[in-house]
Write a structure and sequence with these properties.
The complex is a heterotrimer of chains A (233), B (507) and C (536).
Chain A: E1 16-26, H1 32-41, E2 54-62, E3 66-75, H2 85-89, E4 94-100, H3 104-108, H4 110-120, E5 125-131, H5 133-136, H6 141-158, E6 162-164, H7 173-184, E7 202-203, H8 220-225
Parallel strand pairs in A: 1-3, 1-4, 4-5, 5-6
Antiparallel strand pairs in A: 2-3, 6-7
Chain B: H1 2-20, H2 25-28, H3 38-49, H4 57-70, H5 77-86, H6 89-97, H7 126-139, H8 156-162, H9 167-186, H10 198-202, H11 207-219, E1 220-223, H12 226-238, E2 252-256, H13 263-272, E3 280-284, H14 294-298, E4 304-306, H15 315-322, E5 330-332, H16 341-350, E6 356-358, H17 370-379, E7 384-386, H18 394-404, E8 410-412, H19 424-429, E9 438-441, H20 451-462, E10 468-471, H21 473-503
Parallel strand pairs in B: 1-2, 2-3, 3-4, 4-5, 5-6, 6-7, 7-8, 8-9, 9-10
Helix pairs in contact in B: 1-5, 1-7, 7-11, 8-9, 8-21, 12-13, 15-16, 16-17, 17-18, 20-21
Chain C: H1 14-23, H2 25-36, E1 55-57, E2 62-64, H3 72-89, H4 93-111, H5 115-122, H6 127-145, H7 155-158, H8 188-192, E3 203-205, E4 218-220, H9 228-242, E5 261-265, H10 295-300, H11 304-314, E6 316-318, E7 329-330, E8 333-336, E9 341-343, H12 353-356, E10 363-367, E11 390-392, E12 395-398, E13 403-406, H13 422-425, H14 448-461, H15 477-494, H16 503-508, H17 521-535
Antiparallel strand pairs in C: 1-2, 3-4, 5-10, 7-8, 8-9, 11-12, 12-13
Helix pairs in contact in C: 14-15
The chains are: A alpha/beta (233), B alpha/beta (507), C mainly alpha (536).
């Protein structure tokens, strides 16, 4: 059927809005809130502010034909908030597991975080993100090798893209969210991976694609239009 | 007026109290059928209360106060005005909560004289009773055509399409439709039987109630049963015409599907009913009677004129009554296939407030052309146009859209064989009909381009306004295909945008 | 040379049955009898009826249409009865008697347990014990003396109740006679097949057995179900027998000698995506190299304060709604307030099982690069003379011939006294000879049996067989393999169908019907046939 293209533009085309809930999970002081704030507002604050519960921010990215709204929820890393874990993980399209590159024990507890978060949400795309890369480079090479390898093995076990980032130096922050979208909608992302130990690793191509589910962008139109239930908790 | 308001509030409160007290013996009484009848029970309660022998003392006291203050015989508005404020509102509430208007044990109807001292005084106050009865009247349903949510499917395949391809659902829908059509030919099951009789029961209570209820009943005359209509005519012949003038001045007069209605009956009715106050006149599918234009000449208040399926409605008739309908808002001339453009033009030029006009027909489609559309567009506040089966053209529709585009909400152009892609699809694409919510475009062979329909529908949906586009099987199929295509395009575009974003270096 | 004690190895007997009976039954049997007992030359040809008895496997039990006796005495009678029949119809009683006596005697002679014969003659019940002992002794000795499967002397063999009847379908355990016994040797293949089934003890002719065995075709099988305990012993024994014979010692994992191999742990195997560092390590000063370009940041750098405020404004914090000490259940997860953790989904930890045990590392084993090994690649055929022989344990690698040899040269050939079967397969143009090979008919090279026979020997081990095979039966391995698989399939398909019968009996009851015509049991069999063929 031939479409009278000249006529069509006068009718306003509704824009699709994809609300993508992202959960940030990890030990205390690994930098969940600052990552979120950095991404949303491009602000980095050295001061540590403990998250007392779950922090939420949303960021809208306007594209030509659709809007993406990242609805980011960051769960306080203290144990006392873990009963709010469902809030951050349920319904999330992606869960970012954060650990502090300078504290290996935070990587080890990813295992527990992963178990608990995936218990609530198996569909979410997992990401393994090592923070404070800017401090990490000060460590001795052997340590860097060990942490890189171990985190890589965690990433493989979780089938999660692995990203080392630095909030203060704006390293790989945007990439995290682009990887989320790429994995969520099975898009080809051309950004080259960073694989060399010691560099801020960005390994995503072969990870995190297993649990992708067939996604029909326009079919989500209506559902994404309805306000997210998490907005008014 | 305020006094009656307060009284009304009070009674309605009581009314609500009754309904809302789940623990009360009233509501637990097994005779209670269902909640929709609760009002009936409530209003039967006074009837039974006549036999009540032990009203609470406090209530008696309060009411005696009332009586003494208001005077027993006449309750002039000014008096009530003066009296009510003196009563503490709280006290009034209390007293009403103590009003036990029902007998302790259920007993049947017993006609007790209204002068019975045990009757609660409140039910002998005409204003209050009138208010109560008006509430009852509000519950009264008028016989009306039930407008289906969606049009019936035209075929099984169409039914399946309507159910988004769900075969079983479609099959069900089709079977339903077939069954409906079958029963409908013989019966009027499609029409809701109005819950009637409450007011009529009230007329049996006592003289006061009878009088008040009758007034209200005569306010809205509606019949969907020929026998009842006859009875009414018989009884009304006894009424002295002058004694209760309001009784014969209905605001609503509906004769719903009285197939046996004879010209004589209608003439009788016309002679007995004053039409000055008439606002709504409906002669729904009573094809064999001719209306006298005189009915409308007296009145100039008619807002709603429903005359579908009447073959005596002609251009002459319309022209003769047009001048008497300055307030006309709704005109339904479906299947009045004697009417042609000239009749419609006459109406359009004389009824500037006309909003709804339905000229749909199966025969004599050629009599209605774009002339009617243009006339309606130019002279009225038309919002809804039904021109199914008429020979309207693209030009007429364009004219309508140009002049009334902002106001048009519903269009029915089924079987308008002259319409093409140049009217509705183009108009929608250009957004000349931005408020359209219902569009019927069945069996318009020349409409092949449905993409604007889809885009329009989507756009409205994104604003939270659902749009109903009724197409025939062919058009619905086209729409589904087009929708798929559009979806795919959107998807591709969105994915392309997402990919672009994912791969751009800066955000 | 075949390393197998019998060339029939691995051939399920029944698989040949049809072919043989149709191809050259007469010759075959003639040969067989001639081999085992020259007196039997006039043996009537076996019936072309494939079987005179059928095994029904109805409801767990196995029925044979053959009448079987339950104990030895019965057996004996039965046996005699059968002999009667023989006697009536043929005059072979003596032949058979002689045959078995001879065999028995030879057994006794060989095993040096002559006294047993007396026991056997007594035909008493306590003979079983002795027989067991005997079996065990024999087994042990035999296994010691040579590493090949030892044929076990069956106690029943000592008894005279030997029948020439019945098929091989019933074997549960096997009679073992010495290899040099008169044609009663069991092939390894016989051991293999159906050994778990209760079997008649009578001596049988196995109709389907390939005749190429120069040792004849008589199978001895248990017939008595009462010997279950004995079967246990047999069972154990057979199990060993079923192993590939040259692997009689339990294979054990020896530590890899670091002398021979370079063993390195290689973690990169586990994280293949990670690349090792080959540049300078990143130091804080060149972190900016990785900085994401952010146009917006440049634009808004001045409005830092504003941004901060907006963050504080926009950031919503959801505070704890419920006490953290409240247990919650959500889906499959249960909140444990004491541990402050959500319990459940434990299986997801399995993913990290390998990750966490950091000690577990991938190991790469490579050949040790020896500096002079490649240079001295001389034409030393002898591995021992090789300048740098690779020695693992007591084995040494002969790089030239690509084989492993014993370092100490004590190359035991456990198969030394197993005669090669090559002579067997030599086609003879000449007249009849007394040797086993002589009995092979001229048509033998066309006989599929032989092809099969050779195929089994070669298919499985042809890569190990060092001596060139007999030229006549040089069939390329692919064909052999094809044969082999085809036969296996065939045998699988028809293996359960029929019980083969003694040709003698068959000959007498050529048109023998099912023993119990009234019984509808055969329906079961047909049903099973259909089922199994459908499955195949």
């Amino acid at each position: 059927m031939s479409t009278n293209e000249a006529n069509v533009p006068t009718l306003p085309q509704p824009k699709n809005t994809f609300t993508i809930k992202v959960g940030l999970i990890g030990d205390a002081q690994v930098g969940k809130t600052s990552l979120m704030v950095k991404y949303v507002e491009n602000v980095f604050d050295e001061e540590y502010t403990q998250t007392l519960g779950v922090n939420c921010l949303d960021k809208k990215i306007k594209l030509g034909s659709a809007d993406i709204v990242f609805y980011i929820m960051d769960l306080g890393g203290q144990r006392e908030f873990i009963n709010m874990l469902p809030l951050a993980s349920e319904g999330a399209r992606a869960i970012i597991f954060l650990f502090d590159l300078t504290r290996p024990e935070t990587l080890k507890s990813i295992k527990e975080w992963h178990r608990q978060a995936t218990g609530f949400n198996e569909m979410a795309v997992p990401l393994l993100v090592g923070t404070k890369y800017d401090l990490f480079v000060n460590f001795d090479p052997e340590y860097q090798v060990q942490v890189s390898k171990q985190s890589m093995r965690y990433a493989q076990a979780m089938d999660a893209p692995l990203i080392f980032c630095s909030t203060s130096h704006s390293i790989n922050i945007q990439k995290i969210f682009k990887v989320i979208i790429a994995k969520l909608y099975n898009l080809t992302m051309r950004a080259s991976e960073i694989k060399q130990i010691g560099d801020p690793l960005l390994i995503y191509k072969h990870l995190g694609s297993k649990r992708r589910f067939s996604e029909n962008p326009s079919s989500r139109n209506s559902s994404s239009r309805t306000p997210s239930p998490h907005r008014s908790p | 007026m305020t006094n009656s308001h307060i009284a009304g509030d009070a009674s309605s409160k009581r009314h609500r109290e009754h309904i809302e007290q789940p623990g009360s013996p009233m509501s637990t009484r097994p005779t209670k059928k269902c909640s929709t009848f609760s009002s009936l029970h409530v209003f039967r309660t006074p009837v039974k209360s006549h036999t009540e022998h032990s009203p609470s003392r406090s209530a008696k006291h309060v009411l005696s106060c009332w009586r003494s203050r208001l005077g027993c015989s006449k309750y002039a508005a000014s008096q009530v005005d003066a009296a009510v404020p003196t009563l503490k509102y709280e006290k009034l509430e209390n007293s009403f909560s103590h009003l036990k208007l029902r007998s302790p044990e259920p007993i049947g109807f017993t006609h007790v004289d209204a002068t019975d001292s045990n009757t609660h005084a409140i039910f002998s106050m005409p204003e209050i009773v009138a208010k109560i009865l008006k509430f009852l009247d509000a519950d009264m349903a008028l016989p009306q055509e039930i407008v289906p949510l969606r049009r019936r499917p035209q075929s099984l395949a169409h039914a399946v399409l309507k159910c988004n391809g769900d075969t079983t659902k479609g099959f069900q829908l089709w079977n339903q439709t077939v069954a409906q059509l079958k029963t409908e030919t013989g019966q009027k099951s499609r029409f809701e039987q109005p819950v009637s009789g409450n007011l009529h029961s009230c007329m049996l209570v006592n003289k006061l109630w009878h009088e008040l209820a009758l007034q209200i009943v005569l306010e809205k005359l509606h019949f969907n049963d020929h026998r009842k209509f006859r009875k009414f005519l018989e009884s009304s012949s006894h009424w002295p015409r002058d004694s209760s003038p309001s009784a014969t001045k209905p605001s609503i007069l509906i004769l719903h599907k009285l197939s046996k209605l004879s010209q004589q009956d209608l003439d009788d009715l016309a002679s007995r009913v004053a039409t000055e106050k008439l606002k709504w006149f409906e002669l729904y599918i009573c094809p064999t009677v001719a209306l006298s234009p005189d009915i409308f000449h007296i009145s100039c208040n008619v807002e709603k004129l429903i005359l579908p399926g009447n073959r005596f409605v002609s251009d002459q008739f319309l022209m003769s009554i047009a001048r008497s309908l300055p307030k006309l808002k709704e005109l339904d001339l479906r299947a009045c296939d004697e009417v042609s453009d000239s009749g419609v033009v006459a109406i359009a030029t004389s009824c500037p407030q006309l909003e709804i006009c339905n000229l749909g027909r199966h025969r004599n489609g050629h009599r209605i052309t774009s002339v009617s559309l243009v006339a309606l567009a130019r002279h009225t506040q038309i919002q809804t146009v039904g021109a199914a089966g008429c020979e309207i053209t693209d030009a007429g529709v364009w004219e309508l859209a140009m002049l009334r585009g902002q106001g048009i909400t519903r269009l029915s152009f089924n079987n308008c064989r002259l319409l093409t892609n140049n009217s509705l699809p183009a108009l929608l694409a250009l957004n000349y009909l931005p408020h359209l919510v219902v569009m019927e475009v069945r069996n318009i062979v020349n409409i092949t381009q449905v993409r604007p329909f889809i885009i329009y529908k989507r756009w409205k949906k994104s604003m939270g306004v659902p749009v109903l586009i009724e197409g025939c099987e062919r058009i619905e199929l086209l729409m589904i295909e087009e929708k798929g295509r559009l979806d795919a395009e959107n998807r591709a575009r969105i994915l392309a945008d997402l990919t672009k974003w994912v791969n751009c270096e800066d955000f | 040379m075949s390393i197998r004690p019998s060339p029939n190895d691995d051939i399920p007997e029944t698989s040949f049955e049809d072919i043989e009976t149709t191809l050259s039954p007469i010759n075959r049997y003639k040969n067989g009898y001639n081999q085992s007992s020259p007196l039997r030359k006039q043996m009537p040809p076996p019936s072309t009826t494939s079987s005179e008895s059928t095994t029904f496997s109805g409801n767990g039990n196995r029925y044979s249409t053959h009448t079987e006796s339950d104990d030895a005495d019965e057996e004996g009678k039965n046996f005699l009865d059968e002999f009667e029949e023989f006697h009536d119809k043929d005059e072979y009683q003596d032949i058979i008697k002689a045959h078995f006596d001879g065999r028995k005697r030879s057994n006794e002679k060989k095993t040096g347990m002559g006294g047993l014969n007396a026991f056997a003659e007594e035909n008493g019940d306590n003979i079983d014990e002795l027989a067991d002992q005997f079996d065990q002794n024999l087994t042990l000795r035999a296994r010691k003396s040579s590493e090949i499967p030892t044929l076990k002397l069956d106690k029943n063999a000592k008894q005279p109740n030997v029948s020439l009847k019945k098929s091989i379908r019933m074997p549960k355990s096997f009679e073992r006679v010495s290899r040099r016994g008169i044609g009663n040797s069991r092939s390894a293949s016989n051991l293999r097949v159906n050994w778990e089934r209760p079997a008649p003890t009578n001596l049988r002719y196995k109709k389907s057995m390939p005749l190429l065995s120069r040792e004849g075709i008589i199978n001895e099988e248990y017939e008595d179900n009462n010997y279950e305990e004995d079967f246990e012993d047999d069972f154990k024994f057979e199990k060993n027998m079923l192993q590939p014979q040259f692997l009689n010692r339990e294979p054990q994992l020896k530590p890899i000698s670091p002398r021979q191999y370079t063993i390195t742990t290689d973690e990169t195997l586990l994280t293949p995506q990670l690349h090792s560092r080959h540049k300078d390590w990143v130091n804080p000063s060149n972190l900016n190299h990785f900085k994401e370009q952010q146009r917006r940041k440049a634009r808004e750098s001045g409005s830092y304060r504003k941004n901060r405020e907006s963050v504080n404004h926009r950031l919503k914090t959801i505070k704890q709604e419920i006490d953290q000490n409240t247990p919650i259940k959500k889906g499959k997860m249960i909140y444990n307030p004491e541990k402050r953790t959500w319990e459940g989904n434990e299986q997801s930890l399995l993913r990290f099982r390998d990750v966490d045990t950091a000690e577990k590392k991938a190991i790469v084993i490579t050949d040790k690069k020896l500096p002079y090994s490649s240079g001295s690649r001389a034409r030393i055929s002898d591995a021992k003379r090789q300048s740098n022989p690779k020695i693992v344990g007591k084995m040494m690698f002969d790089a030239q011939n690509l084989q492993w040899l014993r370092v100490d040269g004590q190359e035991e050939d456990p198969f030394a006294d197993i005669p090669d079967y090559i002579p067997v397969t030599i086609p003879l143009d000449g007249g009849p000879q007394r040797s086993a090979t002589a009995m092979i008919p001229q048509s033998s090279h066309r006989d599929p049996t032989k092809k099969r026979f050779s195929s089994t020997a070669t298919t499985r081990f042809h890569s190990l067989s060092t001596t060139p095979y007999d030229f006549t039966f040089q069939i390329d391995s692919r064909t052999l393999e094809k044969f082999y698989h085809e036969e296996n399939r065939w045998s699988k398909k028809v293996g359960g169908w029929f019980i083969l019968d003694d040709p003698d009996v068959t000959s007498t009851n050529n048109d023998q019907k099912l023993p119990d015509p009234q019984s509808k049991n055969f329906m079961y069999e047909i049903r099973n046939m259909v089922i199994s063929s459908a499955r195949n």
